[in-house]
Specification:
globular, mainly alpha, 189 residues, single chain
């Protein structure tokens, strides 16, 4: 199931955590943050870590495909298209790092799906494309939000929050582009 099919942010968080089985180990998050020395201090990674990383990688690959669909829709003005391609680039960087981390842990990275079943027929305007992307980003924010407080080591929470922060900025910018309040409430859910 896709973040696009989630009925709420909480459902997206449950899907992400449920699909991955457990939360990332401290070692996996340290590797994601590019902190190999910290990873060594926190202990070895497990097969569950690879599964969790692959779940995150699958979500990033879906986001890359979604932004590509938006870009190819011919519905975006140049400035908005440039923004979409910038965000797609961020997701490509996340995916690259996740895939490399899976390999470092001895796993095999998941591949992009041939098709994601996006509701392309519903995209009739630039606003539709922006709402489509905003829903994806909101789901990602919620999924990462569910993982951050589960870490005992505050440095590892900070590393996971870095990814959360990027997704939250994407969501806020997309909401602003839609003419909506970029930050809809004082708290994320």
């Amino acid at each position: 199931m896709s973040f696009f099919q989630m009925t709420s942010p909480a459902a997206a968080r449950r899907m992400f955590l449920g699909r991955s089985g457990l939360v990332l180990s401290g070692a996996a998050v340290a590797l994601l943050a590019g902190q190999d020395a910290l990873a060594a201090k926190t202990g070895g990674a497990t097969g569950n870590d690879v599964q969790i990383l692959n779940t995150a990688l699958a979500a990033e690959l879906e986001a890359i495909a979604a932004y590509q669909a938006g870009a190819e829709s011919k519905l975006l003005e140049k400035a908005v298209l440039d923004l979409a391609l910038t965000f797609q680039g961020h997701h490509k960087e996340h995916a690259d790092l996740l895939a490399k981390t899976v390999a470092k842990l001895g796993g095999k990275a998941v591949s992009a799906k041939a098709s994601y079943g996006f509701p392309l027929e519903a995209l009739k305007s630039q606003a539709d494309v922006l709402r489509f992307a905003a829903k994806l980003e909101q789901g990602a924010v919620s999924a990462y939000l569910g993982a951050v407080p589960l870490f005992g080591n505050r440095d590892l929470s900070k590393a996971a929050a870095s990814i959360l922060g990027d997704e939250a900025m994407h969501w806020a910018v997309l909401r602003q582009a839609l003419g909506e309040a970029p930050v809809p409430s004082a708290f994320m859910s």
